[in-house]
Amino acid sequence: MRKILPLFVACGLVPSARAADPAEFFEKSVRPLLVEHCLECHGGKKAGKEKVKGGLRLTSRGELLQGGDSGPAIEPGKPEKSPLVQAVAYKGDLRMPPKGKLSESQVQVLTRWVREGAVWPESGTATVVSGKTFRVTEAQRRHWAYQPVKAVTPPAVRNTAWPRTDIDRFILAGLEAKGLQPTGPADRRTLVRRVTYNLTGLPPTAEELDSALNDPSPDWFARVVDRLLASPAYGEHLGRYWLDVARYTDYYQPNPREHGEAKLFEFFESYRYRDWVVDALNRDVPFDQFITHQIAGDLLPSPKGEPIYPEGLVATGFLVLGSWDPHDADKDKIVSDIVDDQVDNIGKAFLGLTLGCARCHHHKFDPISQEDYYGLAGMFYSTKVLAGLGAKGGSIILQRVPLVPQAQVQRRQQQLRELAALTNRERRLAAQVTGLLATPAAHPAVLAGVAEATRLRDQEVALRRNLVPDPPLALAVQEGGTVGGRFPAVQDVPLHIRGSYAHLGPVVPRRLPGFLSGGRRPRIGQGSGRLELARWVAASDNPLTARVIVNRIWQHHFGEGIVRTANNFGLLGDAPSHPELLDWLAARFVADGWALKKLHRLVLLSAAFQQASTASPEALARDPDNRWFGRMNARRLPAEAIRDAMLVAAGRLDRRLGGPANADLAGPRRSLYVQTTRWDRSNFSSLFDAANPEASTEKRTVSTVAPQALFLLNHPFTQAQAKHLGTRLRAVPGSDTDRIRQAYLWLFGRPPEEVEIRLGQDYLGRAARNGMDTPWADYAHLLLCSNEFVYLD
Amino acid sequence: MTPVAPSMSRRQMLRLSGTGFGMLALADLLTGAESADDRARNPLAVRPPHHPARAKRCIFLYMPGGPSQLDLFDPKPRLARDNGKPLPFEKPKLERTKTGNLFASPWKFAKHGQCGTEMSELLPHLSMRVDDLCVIRSMVADNINHTGAALQMNTGEQAFSRPSLGAWLLYGLGSENQNLPGFVVVSPVPVFQGAPLWGNSFLPSAYQGTWVRDLNNPIANLRGPSADAGRQRAKLDVLRQLNELHKQRRVIDSQLEARIASFELAFRMQAEAPEAFDLGRESALTRKLYGLDDKHTATFGRQCLLARRLVERGVRFVQVYDAPANNVWDHHGNIRKLLPQQCAAVDRPIAGLLQDLKSRGLLDDTLVVWGSEFGRTPTAEGANGREHHPFGFTMWLAGGGVKGGLVHGATDEFGWHAVTDKVHVHDLHATILHLMGLDHTRLTYTYAGRKYRLTDVSGEVVTPILA
User: How far apart are CA A654 and CA A752, in angstroms?
Assistant: First the structure.
């Protein structure tokens, strides 16, 4: 199709070849045919509401020449080059009318008409079809999220006693404006349990709780927060939420090793990206760098001046772990799906924009044109994720990048070649010597042969000793297009009409989105342009990026964001409940060097965070959704924390960090390391609403269904932890009451009330009378099933 | 707790049991209003349809791999005439392997029933039920590979994560039996595309399909090591009291109540679900009807019989995969031997299911759908096989709200392209939702700031097939 565009210019100049009485032929045969079979979809009024399919109207010769989304519909005189004729003949991919082919004679009519010059007696001047032009509307221009982050002064409030920090002045001003008041503070036990789960995904230990309760300092809570932020479990827990956004997954196939082909397409090494995220958060890598690493880490220099930068490479795993079909026979589609996944996820994760919506047409709501999309897409078509497209009918081949310098890889290859040559010589020699052994006369030759064999053997041993180890591999991107694909090198790509590679429009230079970048046009040199993109995304004056991440952190601690659509700050997203607070936090975050730990501290030390989760009936009635944050949202623990807390209760949690995922739910490691798979969702994490690894998850849903209860009642994992906890409880010295008290401290971080002790005693007494062999395990089990165990106040 | 007697009154009692979801669901029904809170409290409560439903429940008989429509439902005399000749028109650009020459069906077709729909000799039992079938010969899909095409058939989208048909139905309508999962997938082996075919994607996870692979152990964690119901009851009684104490001081009582109720429901499920899955309760005659007496038909027969027991108990959507192994309908080679075998394995069970549903009066408001992700080429692959073919293939519907004894749409004379009344996968989905009482353009879910629906931006209800 794209070839036809320049021809259009030419054909306008060519006078139509006229056959005998062409006008009559048109009126008698062509026009009725168009009216009957085509105009239902291709006859809409220009400004009217009727649909015009494919942007093509067939109501005048001019429109046919102007064409639609895929270019001109006819080339007069050349039916074989006219998409309209090809389409009605059902040749090629575009087939019209879609509901069924015209009769052969009807196809002949249209073919003849075009061959004879497509005469249209009434046509006169061609009407130009437009309506597809991209225009930024006033509403888009004014949209809050596209305005620069404002410098805001915290507002004045009436109740000056309540605010502890500037955050509180924003929250309180919002409440006071609605005639509401904040809820009182939560007690220390509740706070310590809440903040420990929020920052580490684990419960506080009895010792941690004790020391917090007995800390006389007014800064006691800041000390708790600082201790937690320094714990490696912080990176594990917050990292898991970033992995939600990054659609992280481990392997795809149930038993990858059983599939010979799996080594080509499986995400075996994705755990390196996961471990990088955890480590980066623990080291408090500034968030702007966290972003540039994930978009363009392969292009960053090693801070240590080393020839390669392994962490930079590993971080680009973000771009690799997409959810596309590695087996699609349509290889071009795979490549365009990979690019779409990358553009879409960069938009959602960092910018809160649904960039992917502009793949097939201009964005319907946000100021993102289809050209903007292909300006970005070009950067990713110029980026290599695949080592190859693979065999016809087979899977693609993922690119695995060695995390050592190229010289080292080459040295190993050289060594392996030498080794192969050596063993080859040894084998030949052995065969020779064996042959000689049969002939007794050849004694000296045998001796010489043995000596030579020993020498070779020694060489081999030495070589093996010095063998450069197999290089660790990462799923990472590199510059350059997809080898064997349509775009095999760094290059600009054409706009894909309706998102299809089969219908290409004009080439769009690689560039940043026009309106959103404020016309910023960094020079894109030899590279793909990803580095320039990363720098723009992570720029301190990008209005979206800082707002998006501070909102995610707020959502993490309060259960709801200031903007409740964390992945969409566009016109269809939610408006911020506290726009000034959002700007204040964003500005402060950037001023603090994009340091996430400082941001957590800022939020957690507010009186707003430290509120109780209770509320007066009036407050509940006036703000049922807690839009004004006049209380803490009580919340159920995330899937991972439920399992980890059971392991802690059982005294079995293994705190080792990192490494490949394990499919074994029964193991003692943190849930972060239990394999996530897109293939099987009938697993624990999915049952308890963990993120769907197929797509970016901005916020987890919380469902309450009976299969969860069945898991907790009957699954061997729960039963095993109950048994372990029962054993631990039985070993607690003292009376049953002491043991019940200990159970409450371990599981709920508080001593039991009288009635709770009595219920426990009664249960244990009855169990003993009924001859149950493990009353403590049963009691432990029911406590693990309780609401208090999985809910945070 | 004593084992449950299989009586309707018992089931009704459990469904409306005042202690758990039953009552909450009833309250939702009575008020008709729904808030996010209601949905959180019981995501599976029955919801009113957009318009009166023609079908209350649906069984989708899925034949993974792509059965050959040309050997089963879409006779092409022209293929017999031109057998072995090359395809007389331009081959599609998208082909998996080199397109071979035309390949006539080795099997005979004959007209059956009052309607006279032509059926292959490979499906003798189904041929006897042809007056109930609405055969769509003009199906089209967009993907030529199993994964992408199966995803499209189940979720409407070929590559990216979207909720499945069953998840949308459950989201839209809830489930009529609160003691069983509302969306059950029955497949003896893992279908290789796996959970995305019955996933909830961005819908709440309560709407995902429950995969039953082992009929003896149908629902995960249904029976724990402690089979002692009395002991579990004692635990649950104390748990309930502790949870009530915990709830008293808290404002999120509906969530907490829902969780209390979920344990009671789990307890009841342990009693009811085994009964629902117990095929031993069926008469010898019924078991024979589904082919349980023959080792060739027993596996799929058990799956079909289970589907009937489940829909009878108010399960909204049951998807039955013919999967004694992976992609058993993927006949790239040896089709002359393998296709008759596979047909023989499902023919009697499917005919039995239709007959059984009819005689129980269930077929009137139960929609049965048969099909796969695509069909197969009219050309040969090798000497004895056919390739994947999404450009024109056959599916059929029966029961709730569709015209029986109808053939809808047609492929060209070679059986390559659907040419008349094409039905795209989106159109099929729109039609299934329509029959179930849902308007596919109104059944939406807002995710990442955009409204999504099963049919994306397309889909038209295929009105000529509506009864």
Answer: 28
The end-to-end CA distance of chain A, in Å, is 62
pLDDT in tens, A533-588: 999 999 999 999 999 999 999 999 999 999 999 999 999 888 999 999 999 999 99
Q: Any CB–CB contact under 8 A between A623 and chain B?
A: no
Spatial separation of the C-alpha atoms in residues A297 and B315, rounded to whole Å: 50
User: Chain A residues with CB inside 8 Å of B220's CB?
Assistant: 682, 707, 710-711, 715
pLDDT at A14: 30
Half-sphere CA count of A678, side-chain side, radius 13 A: 27
| CB distance B173 to B47 below 8 Å | yes
Predicted local distance difference test score (pLDDT) of residue B282: 95
pTM value is 0.79
| Cβ-based contacts of A638 with chain B (< 8 Å) | none
- Cis previous bond, A576, omega within 30: no
B175-212: buried (b, 16+ CB within 10 Å) or exposed (e) per residue? bbbbbbbbbbbbbbebbbbbbbbbbbbbbbbbbbbbbb
Tell me how long chain A is. Answer: 793
Residues 740-759 of A with CB under 8 A from B: 753, 755-756, 759
Task: Output A192 or B212, whichever has higher pLDDT.
Answer: A192
Contact assessment for residue B316 and residue B53, using Cβ atoms and an 8 Å cutoff? no
Residues of chain A with pLDDT under 70: 1-20, 24, 32, 35, 40, 43-51, 121-132, 252-259, 438-442, 680-682
By the CB < 8 Å criterion, does A781 face chain B? yes
CB-CB under 8 Å, B211 with A682: yes
Closest residue by Cα to residue B347 from B290, B394, B263, B303: B290
Token pair 């038993």 is found at: A255
Q: Whose CA is closest to A605, among A106, A224, A138?
A: A224
CA distances from A83 to A96, B179, B369, B417 (A): 10, 57, 37, 19
Contact A325 B263 (CB under 8 A): no
Contact criterion met (CB < 8 Å) for B448 and A354 = yes
What pLDDT is recorded for position A12?
29
Q: In this complex, which of B265, B270, B449 lies closest to A354 when CB atoms are compared? A: B449
Which residues 159-198 on chain B approach chain A with CB closer than 8 angstroms?
Answer: 159-161, 181, 190, 194-196
A314's tokens: 């590993």
Nearest Cα of chain A lies from the Cα of B284 at a distance, in angstroms, of 33
E strand or H helix at A489, and its extent?
none
Give bridge partners of residue B379 from the DSSP assignment. Answer: B102
Q: Are A634 and A613 in contact (CB under 8 A)?
A: yes
Q: How far is CA B117 from CA A640, A643, A711, B67, B392, in A?
A: 56, 57, 49, 19, 18
CB of B200 within 8 Å of a chain A CB? The answer is: yes
Tokens of residue A446, six digits: 């045998």
Mean of all residue pLDDT scores within chain B: 87
CB atoms within 10 A of CB A298: 25
